[in-house]
Design a protein that fits this description.
The protein has 233 residues and is of the alpha+beta class. The protein is built from 9 helices and 4 strands; from the N terminus they run E-H-E-E-H-E-H-H-H-H-H-H-H. Helix 1 runs antiparallel to helix 2.
Length: 233
């Protein structure tokens, strides 16, 4: 069965996953990871894309982005992908492809799924057994979201600002959300939507989004959003 074209829409948050070919490492050390972050920062400015969150894992990475134009996201991913492969192959004496096919992408309903997706991304190193706590992994945006450091790559989404009336309140609420974690159902919905390319949101969101594109955006009615800790209300 032919693959669906990726759905990218201006002014909507998108969850991106890009994996290494055959599960191979795409980051060997800190220099590789910093090069990727530098490329993301450069290309995000060039193509008018806001980066809300990221996590760089050994053999894949996640991004949470909002493009300001419909072409911004694919242009960013193409430019970053090509530049990083050229750098990586030159540095490590290799040739050929680095990526496992196309990057995966899903459009999110920000109200219900932006914060849970950020939480899922920040907990990825914990789920993989790389660290005990999200804050122990230096190659994610958790430090910026938790108020531990500044990060020039990160542009907070409007939903993040609803977590509190002050920077301290927002940071504390987000830390609480990460500590609370996600239900297995919420995590499965986030992962499944990203890998299959289905939009993630409630039925009204899906219906309105479908009117914007001829591309099918869901296989079945979207599930319930995850429960959010009281500190996020």
């Amino acid at each position: 069965m032919a693959r669906l074209p990726r759905l990218t829409l201006a002014d909507f948050p998108h969850h991106i996953i890009q994996r290494g070919n055959n599960g191979a490492e795409i980051f060997v050390d800190g220099q590789d990871r910093q090069t990727m972050l530098d490329l993301l920062r450069e290309m995000a400015r060039r193509f008018d894309v806001d980066v809300h969150a990221y996590v760089l894992m050994p053999n894949h990475f996640h991004l949470l982005l909002t493009p300001q134009t419909e072409l911004g996201l694919p242009q960013l991913m193409q430019a970053v992908g090509r530049s990083y492969v050229r750098y990586f192959n030159n540095r490590h004496g290799r040739s050929g492809t680095l990526w496992e096919g196309r990057y995966r992408c899903t459009v999110l309903q920000a109200r219900d799924w932006l914060i849970p997706t950020m939480v899922s991304m920040d907990l990825n190193p914990v789920r993989e057994g790389l660290v005990a706590k999200a804050g122990d992994w230096p190659w994610s945006s958790y430090g910026a979201s938790a108020g531990l450091r500044n990060d020039a790559l990160v542009s907070p989404h409007a939903m993040f600002w609803t977590l509190g009336n002050t920077p301290f309140a927002r940071d504390a609420a987000y830390v609480s959300a990460v500590e609370a974690g996600l239900s297995s159902d919420a995590q499965e919905q986030i992962s499944h939507a990203a890998m299959r390319g289905w939009a993630l949101g409630d039925s009204d969101f899906i219906e309105k989004l479908q009117q914007k594109t001829e591309r099918r955006i869901s296989r079945q009615r979207a599930g319930r959003p995850p429960k959010v800790p009281k500190t996020l209300s």
